[in-house]
């Protein structure tokens, strides 16, 4: 362990103790050595005893910096793990980071390009356009075509800092797991592992560039979403170059209203975008918070979204997609029994769950929603309530569904902000019904057959030989079966004959012995004994050999 790691570890412990995070551990589960360690750091006292636990955790993460802030943001979506107070506090975390020196940014960009900035770009702006916890954005103009672009570059040594913090988080999570014991609901080690996967994915800007290109291609002909063009030849692990697009932040409602934007259409398109990404493309933007979404300035009567920052993308398995679509439709149709069955069939809750009890719990969550005005109904919060309900029935957390839930909350939040009367039911239900019909109808069958055609076209020349080989194999198997049957019948005949002779010999021997003991006429007794002995000999010789047929 390096000196820097030790210093960082001490800083994390000091911050945790200053905010009294150690006091949140159950005293009866805390090992004695933890108490002794805490006592040895007597000069580090809780300075925020007047604040609630969730607020103290939020403030501690803010003080520890970007990596912990992002962890808090992720935890705020885990309503299956945290109660409402803690989740709502963590949801208020804001990732606002001062920019780093532009000279360092220039060095990092030129190191990736292996060329001076001036050789490829004009009007490079040293003042960053935006600054976040992992990266920083600068503007420039491409010399090759005169297009305005943005250059996204990772912060200096951010990989090492994140690796050190992840190591500390893993150690803390493993320790906490041992303290809480098996069966605890928080599962800290699992949470940190999910977080590790997410944040390490954001450190590879080449991967983000590929994600952005794929998302752009999925919506090339769309009037709902525009993804800026990515210059892949200028993208590397620590640098990404893309088209600069001007837009209005989606959270700036006043500016959108001032230009006459059709907010109702915009909100409905947001919902359609979510379901299209999930069910049509199975590739959805999983970080659609307001900072990553802009609205076009052109055609305010026919507005479209501008999507940025494709570092976190989500996918679902085919079975998850189907179960999810059926869940939505069952909810729209108020079929709570089907919702409960789907949760169990999909493995999202334990197979030992009491179906009737779970159905009643789901009904208690969902039914009140249908008695409220549209502008008071939040489908995202219904999902949160369902997670909370399922928690009582041993829900099995699916990381890809957590990403999906977070995305839906973002989308619905944006939609409500843009147009409070947004009718999620009316917007989403036709899409889902159409998608389900495409999955199970004749068209779906035709599409599956068409998708298999290249495979069968490749195998078709081999088909006559395969048929002939299988017919010969079948003939051989039939011959082998007949031989086995004949052997079995011979075995049975020998066994029956041997048993008959042995039983008869036993009867004759018993009869001869009885007659001999009576001392009457001797020749019948001797005859019975002789015949019994002979039949026993024949029966013994007639038995099947080796016990096999």
UniProtKB/TrEMBL annotation:
<dbReference type="InterPro" id="IPR010232">
    <property type="entry name" value="UbiB"/>
</dbReference>
<comment type="similarity">
    <text>Belongs to the protein kinase superfamily. ADCK protein kinase family.</text>
</comment>
<dbReference type="GO" id="GO:0005524">
    <property type="term" value="F:ATP binding"/>
</dbReference>
<feature type="transmembrane region" description="Helical">
    <location>
        <begin position="500"/>
        <end position="517"/>
    </location>
</feature>
<keyword id="KW-1003">Cell membrane</keyword>
<comment type="similarity">
    <text>Belongs to the ABC1 family. UbiB subfamily.</text>
</comment>
<dbReference type="InterPro" id="IPR050154">
    <property type="entry name" value="UbiB_kinase"/>
</dbReference>
<keyword id="KW-0067">ATP-binding</keyword>
<keyword id="KW-0418">Kinase</keyword>
<keyword id="KW-0830">Ubiquinone</keyword>
<dbReference type="InterPro" id="IPR045308">
    <property type="entry name" value="UbiB_bact"/>
</dbReference>
<keyword id="KW-0547">Nucleotide-binding</keyword>
<keyword id="KW-0812">Transmembrane</keyword>
<feature type="binding site">
    <location>
        <begin position="129"/>
        <end position="137"/>
    </location>
    <ligand>
        <name>ATP</name>
    </ligand>
</feature>
<feature type="active site" description="Proton acceptor">
    <location>
        <position position="287"/>
    </location>
</feature>
<dbReference type="GO" id="GO:0005886">
    <property type="term" value="C:plasma membrane"/>
</dbReference>
<dbReference type="InterPro" id="IPR011009">
    <property type="entry name" value="Kinase-like_dom_sf"/>
</dbReference>
<keyword id="KW-0831">Ubiquinone biosynthesis</keyword>
<dbReference type="Pfam" id="PF03109">
    <property type="entry name" value="ABC1"/>
</dbReference>
<dbReference type="GO" id="GO:0004672">
    <property type="term" value="F:protein kinase activity"/>
</dbReference>
<keyword id="KW-0472">Membrane</keyword>
<feature type="domain" description="ABC1 atypical kinase-like">
    <location>
        <begin position="93"/>
        <end position="342"/>
    </location>
</feature>
<dbReference type="InterPro" id="IPR004147">
    <property type="entry name" value="ABC1_dom"/>
</dbReference>
<keyword id="KW-1133">Transmembrane helix</keyword>
<feature type="transmembrane region" description="Helical">
    <location>
        <begin position="523"/>
        <end position="540"/>
    </location>
</feature>
<comment type="function">
    <text>Is probably a protein kinase regulator of UbiI activity which is involved in aerobic coenzyme Q (ubiquinone) biosynthesis.</text>
</comment>
<dbReference type="GO" id="GO:0010795">
    <property type="term" value="P:regulation of ubiquinone biosynthetic process"/>
</dbReference>
<protein>
    <recommendedName>
        <fullName>Probable protein kinase UbiB</fullName>
        <ecNumber>2.7.-.-</ecNumber>
    </recommendedName>
</protein>
<keyword id="KW-0808">Transferase</keyword>
<comment type="pathway">
    <text>Cofactor biosynthesis; ubiquinone biosynthesis [regulation].</text>
</comment>
<dbReference type="GO" id="GO:0006744">
    <property type="term" value="P:ubiquinone biosynthetic process"/>
</dbReference>
<keyword id="KW-0997">Cell inner membrane</keyword>
<feature type="binding site">
    <location>
        <position position="152"/>
    </location>
    <ligand>
        <name>ATP</name>
    </ligand>
</feature>
């Amino acid at each position: 362990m390096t000196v820097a790691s030790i210093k960082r570890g001490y800083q994390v412990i000091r911050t945790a103790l200053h905010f009294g995070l150690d006091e949140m551990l159950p005293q009866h589960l805390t090992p004695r050595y933890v108490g002794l360690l805490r006592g040895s750091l007597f000069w580090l006292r809780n300075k925020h005893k007047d604040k609630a636990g969730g607020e103290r955790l939020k403030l501690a993460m803010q003080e520890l910096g970007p990596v912990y802030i992002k962890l808090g943001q992720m935890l705020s979506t885990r309503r299956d793990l945290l109660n409402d107070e803690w989740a709502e506090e963590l949801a208020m975390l804001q990732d606002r980071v001062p920019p780093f020196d532009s000279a360092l940014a220039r060095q990092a960009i030129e190191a990736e390009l292996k060329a001076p900035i001036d050789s490829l770009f004009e009007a490079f702006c040293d003042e960053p356009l935006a600054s976040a916890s992992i990266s920083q954005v600068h503007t420039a103009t491409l010399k090759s075509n005169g297009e305005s672009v943005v250059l996204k570059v990772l912060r200096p040594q951010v990989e090492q800092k994140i690796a050190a913090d992840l190591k500390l988080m893993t150690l803390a999570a493993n320790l906490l797991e041992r303290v809480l014991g098996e069966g605890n609901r928080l599962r800290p080690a699992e949470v940190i592992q999910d977080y590790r996967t997410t944040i390490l994915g954001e450190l590879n800007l080449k991967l983000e560039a590929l994600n952005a290109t794929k998302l752009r291609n999925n919506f090339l002909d769309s009037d709902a979403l525009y993804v800026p063009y990515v210059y892949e030849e200028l993208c590397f692990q620590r640098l990404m170059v893309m088209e600069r697009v001007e837009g209005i932040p989606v959270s700036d409602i006043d500016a959108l209203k001032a230009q006459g934007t059709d907010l109702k259409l915009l909100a409905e398109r947001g919902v359609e975008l979510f379901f299209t990404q999930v069910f049509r493309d199975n590739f959805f933007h999983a970080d659609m918070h307001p900072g990553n979404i802009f609205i076009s300035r052109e055609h305010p009567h026919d507005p479209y979204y501008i999507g940025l920052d494709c570092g976190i993308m989500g996918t679902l398995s085919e079975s998850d997609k189907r179960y999810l679509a059926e869940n939505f439709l069952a909810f729209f149709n108020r079929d709570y029994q089907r919702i409960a069955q789907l949760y169990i069939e999909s493995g999202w809750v334990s197979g030992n769950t009491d179906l009737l009890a779970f159905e009643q719990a789901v009904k208690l969550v969902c039914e009140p929603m249908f008695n409220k005005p549209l502008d008071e109904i939040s489908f995202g919060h219904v999902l949160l309530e369902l997670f909370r309900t399922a928690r009582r029935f041993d829900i099995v957390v699916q990381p890809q569904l957590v990403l999906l839930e977070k995305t839906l909350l973002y989308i619905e939040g944006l939609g409500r902000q843009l147009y409070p009367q947004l009718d999620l039911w009316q917007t989403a239900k036709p899409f889902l019904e159409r998608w389900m019909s495409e999955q199970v109808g004749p068209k779906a069958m035709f599409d599956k057959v068409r998708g298999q055609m290249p495979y069968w076209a490749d195998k078709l020349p081999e088909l006559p030989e395969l048929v002939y080989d299988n017919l010969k194999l079948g003939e051989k198997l039939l011959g082998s079966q007949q031989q086995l049957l004949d052997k079995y019948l011979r075995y049975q005949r020998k066994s029956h004959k041997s048993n008959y002779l042995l039983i008869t010999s036993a009867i004759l021997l018993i009869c001869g012995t009885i007659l001999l003991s009576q001392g009457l006429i001797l020749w019948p007794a001797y005859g019975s004994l002789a015949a019994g002995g002979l039949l026993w000999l024949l029966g013994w010789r007639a038995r099947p050999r080796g016990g096999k047929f």
